[in-house]
Specification:
Two copies of one chain form a homodimer. The first copy, chain A, has three domains: 148 residues, Aldehyde oxidase/xanthine dehydrogenase, molybdopterin binding domain (Aldehyde Oxidoreductase, domain 4, 2-Layer Sandwich); 174 residues, Aldehyde oxidase/xanthine dehydrogenase, a/b hammerhead (Aldehyde Oxidoreductase, domain 3); 321 residues, 2-Layer Sandwich (Aldehyde Oxidoreductase, domain 4), CATH 3.30.365. Chain A contains 19 helices and 30 strands. In chain A, strand 16, helix 9 and strand 17 form a beta-alpha-beta unit. Chain A is globular, with a radius of gyration of 27 Å. In chain A, 63% of the residues are buried. At the A-B interface, strand 21 and strand 25 of A face strand 21 and strand 25 of B.
């Protein structure tokens, strides 16, 4: 198929405003009389709040208002379970809970006032371990509940008892992963403006999910949705992280703005961001797997326990994705998995790129190498023997028959391109010196979009102006990933217009069709289908207009290069000319596209159903060098093969791969938010280490394309699959290099030096 | 028919924000780093600009930029003929032409700098009279043209020569009217903000026609339409006046904003407003009318000459409306009218409430009384004998068969309610003392909406939120007239929702469907039909959703009081609950309504056709007291009967009548923008007199309702008909009181004292 605008590495449409600094981020928003807000956080992770004395703080110069829980019309919010406090009321439940927020004429005055607020606490004994929280009789974090359990997702398929009986080899392993910070460049920022135009409150900011924020703020303020307006600014990254925490900040700023009748700015420092914003869930996982001598998987039993921290946030959904991906992309007749989330007094956890998959993939793909070792097979062979192919039945009982299952293809391409087999065998042998090289791989299947978590629908509006320029209104947002360019390419393809004629409007709840959140690697797939619908709708109306007036049949009309061609390729007129004529005749050329994904299903009791309507497949190979004396690990090269259906913008796809690989690398060997009794110990990037450009390996992205029948132009997803594979691949490479199996992330120096020997024969 | 929300005097939806001062007007808009702009106007109405020296002005403190014509990318704009200068280039053509605009950090600095700009002019001999401008060989205002004629609209029906031959009585009269200022409370205000969100320029302000301003600014900047955003603020009145002049100011502010990369505010003082903004056209009219002895009209011949001032602006359209209404609502077989517009070096003229009708109705309805006097008939009888009724053929050959022609009804009701006959006869007799009372009336038919001037279409978007609240996006605007309330009532009627659940969004070219301008008393009629379509569309989708899920048939479902009822009036659920359920299922509840008016036609050569698809009818009776010694006229009472089709909000309709009557009163006896050789002599309200509350007569509004088949809920128009009748009614009342016929507006003291005697037997 010939394309003119999609399937090309077009320059980003937002590049100019970004490189010139004209792009406005949340903290760039300024308004006359704007006040600066500052949050007072609790002193203790878990404490009773006995008294709050605002007296001296209120008397400070330039202080205009201070709010506490008393000022919050409805103090509980939450997208799944409404149990998150806007400001701590009777108790603080974690170290990032807010107690009060000051609004003052200057940031300095607000900061001074915060220090003068006198809070009397009664420190309480908290629960800081998910397994502890799970125990009967454990202190209840939310007293209204019967236990600390947030969620339990069972999955039952076949008969695991029988499966293990039929297995020749059984191994059991435990893995665990840490709290992870999303580490977006731009910390959270909101500005709330009261009584602007027709809205009671308008909130600008770095807001990943404007519609969820709108609902949260309306609910907190007890205001109608049509009176709360959220405008998303340019985003300096989000990675799932600017949802609930930003809703909470937006609500606080809104209350202050309405109280003072002035705009209120609330922008976190990095320390505040790390202290207050939710993290990726730490998981504790127990895996048991059984196989025959020849490497056929017979049974898997998995228990995964997620630490939800103080609030439910997205725990029920995050853990649900783990259920679906826990077994990896392998055919196993007998599966039993149990995935849990428990409240603790730790920092709360929620969405982060990967969303429940990086944890289980680290475990599962480490396990596969451990099993291969046990069976004395090479890890590629073991995988090839068991991977999903067309018409495979997944652990949840879904038959993979809607699209090309390309696991073999991504695996083979990555293995060949990285010279995996040769290197794996070479590195396995004894290497001289302290620096040992290793190579490892991991594979995954990943459900695209929200799946059975929630309805998956998105809308696009296209409005053709009289001069042939177009506005594109999207409910899904540019978070930095390149969405604007991709949508403009898709619309341009169908309308025959250059992408510089198409203007992608920032998401604004007042204009944009509520399309849920830009998460779950769904924007290209779900929103792209809406773009296609809207553009086809508009193109058809253009064709109809021409056909009715210029003796043409609609089928002969082609839109290309800004021009309308008729039968025998005769040039009829430019799209600009046609737009102007249509306007003169009162023909309105705005079109809607609304896309609802194909049907999916899920039985929560058994974990059976068709959780996603399509999947993407990926394989990453890591090559490392480990200094066994210092414990230092250098990742030399990452080869990443990802099936994206169709790459609408290959340069953007590569950008996603580079970024995802780097985040996977951080997850594998560097990143860990350390907590101690609920206190966070590394609250800035001097102590919380993320990869820098110096840590960047040679990255070899391999784009695999098997156009999906349900994807716009065949496109699927790429955002999250890129980071879920790195940690396991690196762990396997480290094992290949050092013969040491590390089952706890991040793989650090200490573990390398004193780490456990690669197990032989199960525990 | 039973209504729940329309046909009721609901409280205005915008009352709260207006009375609390929260409503933001153009001049209330403030932005960080905003600059203040000030215009330097030409010194002479007509002059060559030899040199502009900005040197000293530029050196002033706080001055950031100064622009002249050289800085304007495309210096010509205009909605019909593009000949208006953004800034005077080689010549200034009228006294309000801008020469340069300064942007400075303070208004004071801008003002100082303006004074320091040194312009060398060569004064030229201008043309300041439309009849002078008409003469062959007259100085050409626009050198590229062959004459100063902007437009000539002929109308030819029957054979006037024959008609006059068949007449028993023929009279010829001349009437003239002055320049009139729209006199909105709020002078023009714009603020241009560069590079905001995705727009190159965003302009806020008191902008009557955001879409025309968008086109003008885009054209001036040579920018794509989708990069120019216009947001209408609350408006302190417009009355047709905030269109071209605001486009020009918006373009100037935009150029400065892009040059400085800062927001630029350009707000006129009252003096600047009166000097710069276009006026209602002065007309010079010659009427000749022939009738039989028994009062049957046989022929009319009319010549009307409008002064267009320096630019074309809306002259071609304004004069076109005069053509249609020039003969009044009377059956005449033989008609010949010629309506002209000519350029002069006077202030330019454009849209003002009435739009070409107040001038000709003053003439025509004065003429009818003069003819009645001549025929010795009473003015009511003469009118009743000749007025349009159902199936009448108009001067342009249109058969009035689409709606109830209610002239007799409005005339009869006003005459009865005002006790016209008795008073007319009584006052006609000699009255003792200096204070003479009189009563007079006038009637009109008025084409609703734009008519054959331009395509008449409008769009509405309704978006139902998850909590059952609604956003209403309209392309037509609230200018203060009460439109928001009317649209909310209409949508509420169909959706069964209280109007406080519906949020009418300010017009924003980024969101609102381009529906042309809020002019021509078209908003209730044309936009109302779009509201109806959008609301019906949304209601049907709600019904479909319910029918498919709750064993109902769509036909049984009723939306009322926020609740959905099914067969046998069973309550199914609230609309809020339904909205939430729909959102969960990915059903998108936003609907479009796009309305295009019924077909109309016009032959510009003959002035024949169906210029409007429906008409409204009105009659006003004025009762006055004239002090013949001082010349003072007191209007004691105005009785105003108007057929509005259906009054959606009777209180609002009355508001329109009160306001229109007062403007008509000003037109009749007070208002006149005086010019002398192109200079304006009264540039503020101390000298340009408008009626105050002290001049307010007893006003008796009579709402007549004959629901129109093409109107939403039967509604038609009310904005402009209310002011087109007053001047003639007052003139007729003055004649009744004093036996003096004044044919030149305003009727002033001097004319009363030395005015011409009511003519007997024609000139």
């Amino acid at each position: 198929m010939e394309f003119n605008h999609v399937h090309k590495s077009k320059k980003r449409v937002d590049v100019y405003e970004k490189v010139t600094g004209r792009a406005k981020y949340g903290a760039d928003m300024r308004f006359p009389d704007m006040l600066y807000a500052q949050t007072l956080y609790t002193k203790y992770p878990y404490a009773e709040i006995k008294n709050i004395d605002l007296g001296s703080a209120q008397k400070q110069n330039d202080v205009e208002a201070i709010i506490t829980a008393e000022d919050v019309p409805n103090n509980k919010f939450g997208v799944i379970i409404e149990n998150q406090q806007v400001l701590a009321e009777d108790k603080s439940l974690f170290i990032g809970d807010g107690i009060a927020v000051v609004a003052a004429k200057t940031a300095k005055a607000a900061g001074r006032a915060v220090e003068l607020i006198d809070v009397q606490y009664k420190e309480l004994k908290g629960v800081y371990d998910s397994l502890e929280a799970r125990k009967e009789g454990s202190q209840l974090i939310h007293e209204e509940n019967e236990s600390n359990q947030v969620i339990h997702h069972p999955l039952r398929k076949g008969n695991v008892k029988q499966g293990f009986l039929e297995s020749d080899v059984i191994i059991k392993r435990e893995y665990d992963t840490p709290f992870i910070e999303q580490s977006y460049i731009e910390p959270e920022a909101v500005v709330a403006v009261p009584y602007q135009e027709n809205s009671t409150i308008t909130i600008y900011g770095s807001i990943q999910n404007p519609f969820a924020t709108q609902e949260a703020v309306a609910s907190v303020l007890k205001e109608k949705l049509n009176k709360v307006r959220i405008v998303q600014n340019h985003m300096g990254g989000s990675f799932g992280g600017k949802d609930e925490v930003v809703s909470s900040m937006a609500a606080r700023a809104a209350i202050l703005a309405l109280k003072t009748e002035k705009p209120v700015r609330l922008v976190n420092t990095r320390d505040q961001s790390i202290k207050e914003s939710y993290k990726r869930h730490p998981y504790k996982m127990k895996y048991k797997i059984g196989a025959t001598h020849d490497g056929r998987l017979k049974a898997m039993q998995i228990e995964a326990v997620a630490d939800s921290g103080a609030y439910a946030c997205q725990t029920p959904f995050v853990t649900w994705r783990s259920v679906v991906q826990a077994t990896g992309p392998y055919e196993v007749e007998n599966v039993k998995t149990d995935t849990y989330g428990f409240y603790t007094n730790n920092i709360y956890t929620g969405a982060m790129r990967g969303y429940g998959s990086p944890q289980v993939i680290f475990a599962q793909e480490s396990l596969m190498d451990e099993l291969a070792e046990e069976l004395d097979m090479d890890p590629v062979q073991l995988r090839l023997k068991n991977i999903y192919h067309n018409n495979s039945i997944t652990a949840s009982g879904q038959k993979l028959d809607s699209h090309q299952v390309s696991l073999k293809e991504v695996l083979t391409k990555a293995v060949e391109k990285s010279d995996f087999i040769e290197k794996y065998n070479r590195y396995k042998k004894e290497q001289p010196g302290d620096k040992k090289r290793g190579i490892g791989l991991s594979i995954s299947f990943r459900g695209c979009s929200l799946g059975a978590e929630a309805i998956d629908a998105a809308g696009i509006i296209l409005s053709l102006k009289k001069d042939g320029s177009v506005n594109l209104y999207s409910g899904l947002a540019e978070n930095g990933q390149g969405l604007k360019t991709v949508y403009c390419q898709m619309a341009g393809e169908i309308l025959g217009l250059d992408i510089d004629r198409i203007n992608f409007m920032e998401v604004d709840t007042l204009i944009s069709p509520d399309s849920g959140s830009t998460v779950a690697s769904r924007a290209t797939l779900i929103g792209g289908n809406a773009v296609k619908k809207a553009a086809n709708n508009l193109a058809n109306r253009i064709k109809k207009f021409i056909a009715e007036r210029y003796e043409q049949t609609e089928g002969d009309i082609v839109l290309k290069d800004g021009t309308i061609y008729g039968k025998k390729d005769i040039e009829i007129m430019s799209i600009a000319e046609m737009s102007s004529k249509a306007a003169m005749e009162g023909v309105y050329l705005t079109s809607y596209g609304w896309y609802v994904s194909p049907e999916i299903s899920w039985d929560e009791e058994t974990g059976q159903g068709n959780p996603y309507f399509t999947y993407v497949y990926g394989c990453q190979v890591a090559e490392v060098e480990v200094d066994i004396k210092t414990g230092e690990i250098s990742v030399l090269k990452m080869t990443a093969a990802h099936d994206v259906g169709r790459a609408i913008n290959p340069a953007n796809v590569k950008g996603q791969i580079y970024g995802g690989v780097m985040m996977g690398l951080g997850y594998g060997i560097m990143e860990e938010l350390k907590t101690n009794q609920g206190y966070i110990q590394n609250t800035n990037f001097d102590e919380y280490l993320i990869p820098t450009v110096k840590d960047m390996p040679d990255i070899d992205p391999i784009i695999v394309e098997n156009p999906d029948p349900d994807g716009p132009f065949g496109a699927k997803s790429i955002g999250e699959p890129t980071l879920e594979l790195g940690a396991a691949a690196i762990a396997n490479a480290v094992a290949n290099a050092t013969d040491k199996r590390i089952r706890s992330l991040p793989i650090n120096l200490e573990q390398i030096i004193v780490g456990r020997k690669l197990s032989k024969g199960g525990e």
